[in-house]
Amino acid sequence: MAGNGQVLCREEDRTSMGVPVSQMWTVASYVIAQKLRGRKQYPVVLMLEPLFRCNLACAGCGKIQYPAHVLKTDLTPEQCFAAVDECGAPLVSIPGGEPLMHPQIAEIVEGLVARKKYVYLCTNGLLLKEKIDQFKPSKYFSFVVHMDGQREHHDFAVCREGTYDKAVEGIREALQRGFRLTTNTTLFDGADPKSVREFFDEMMDLGVEGMMLSPGYTYDKAPDQDHFLSKKKTRRLFRQILSNRREKWRFNMSPLFLEYLMGRREYKCTPWGMPTYNIFGWQKPCYLLQDGYADTFDELLRDTKWERYGTESGNPKCANCMVHSGYEASAVNDTFGSLRGFAATVRATLFDKYNDPDVDDDTPMTPTRSSGPLVQIGAAPDA
Ligand code: SF4
Predict the structure, then answer these.
(1) Alpha carbon 167 to chain centroid distance?
(2) Is the CB of 321 under 6 A from ligand 1?
(3) Ligand 1 binding pocket mutation candidate from 267, 311, 318 (most atoms within 8 A of CB)
């Protein structure tokens, strides 16, 4: 591990959640300031999509189905900076597409770090080793490598053999150079909880800072419509995965959001908490749906019919959605919205291992492909 200041960031400036203390402080003071100002709708994470093209074509992705002229278009660094300044969120996530294919991605990251934004650059890791010289380690900057499980699961999920090994190569290189790095895992129906738990061990053994998780969302543009999870199945899957937690696991997410995924608490969607900006403008209402675009962030907040969205709205597109872009900001709001929420977060972070004798999760297993019988949302018998 590199012996520089970044190691200090990773080893000392880090909570048991896997998030640097300075980042937690920045988010906490930001949310409290919004509340003191009486703001009901405020962004926590800006989802900045600088391009849609990718070097993979995953079956569960809804972002790469655009026509060629759209896939060729990039946001400029200036457009990115303007969106970040306009929005004001303390965290910026850069998904895509594959951001490392953007010719000016390093300039974009540098400009955001200079603004003291905590930047999470999401990548499938295939270009990580090749492009890493363009970036500098910083407590404000983290790579987020998309890993969908153990080797066979991951390669199957992203529809290409060898991607797991290539991504792990990139992870090792980034960690060796002192970068912050987390993983991001999307889970679909048919995921094997035991394999996912083994995968968590593998990632923590590699030395990643923390892990992020989300259930898959039924993108109507995705070619594979059969692997998405109903809410009931999501809760059952996450309870199996996240109960009886192992000591070494760290999650770079709100612990209350993880409890929500396990079915231990309920939240309403707050899609304005993670607004999306891309080449079309500010996407209504969230990262997942495209019910039009606004020219400005204020217009997005003002003109979106928010009551039409969220599970409780009756909107069929939201019926089975439990994804972080809708519900993690709700959990963050809960943490800083009441003493009860704050105490629950402290308990979840420091003490709770979620012991559950009903969940048989530690039997050694042989990895299998996540290709079992799958159920489509809406047609799910237990939905
Ligand atoms: S429930 Fe999901 S799909 Fe619906 S608005 Fe919220 S995040 Fe978007």
Answers:
(1) 17
(2) yes
(3) 318
Identify whether 236 is part of a domain. yes
DSSP-derived pairing of the beta strands 91-94 and 290-294: unpaired
Neighbours of 186 (CB within 10 A): 21
3-state secondary structure of 327: helix
Task: Return the CATH number at 216.
Answer: 3.20.20.70
Distance, in Å, from the CA atom of 122 to the CA atom of 189, rounded to the nearest integer, reads 23
* 144-192 confidence digits (pLDDT tens): 999 989 998 888 888 888 999 999 999 999 999 999 999 999 888 778 9
Complete DSSP assignment for 57-75 = --TT-SSS-S-HHHHT---
Q: Is residue 25 part of a domain?
A: no
State how many domains the chain has: 1
Answer yes or no: is pLDDT of 228 > 60.
Answer: no
Q: 60 near 88, Cβ under 8 Å?
A: no
Mean pLDDT along residues 262-284: 95
State the DSSP H helix or E strand holding residue 11, giving kind and residue range, or none if neither: helix 5-11
CB atoms within 10 A of CB 381: 7
Residue 14 forms part of a structural domain? no
- CB distance 293 to 283 below 8 Å: yes
216 lines ligand 1 (CB under 6 A): no
* 281: containing domain: 43-350
Work out which ligand 1 atom sits closest to the CA atom of 270.
Answer: 6
* Burial (0-12, 13-18, 19+ Cβ within 10 Å), 69: exposed
Interstrand relation of 91-94 and 180-187 (parallel, antiparallel or unpaired): unpaired
Please indicate, yes or no, if residue 223 is contained in any of the structural domains: yes
| Secondary structure (DSSP) of 98-124 | -GGGSTTHHHHHHHHHHTT-EEEEEE-
Radius of gyration of the chain (CA): 19
Whether 367 has a pLDDT exceeding 50, the answer reads no
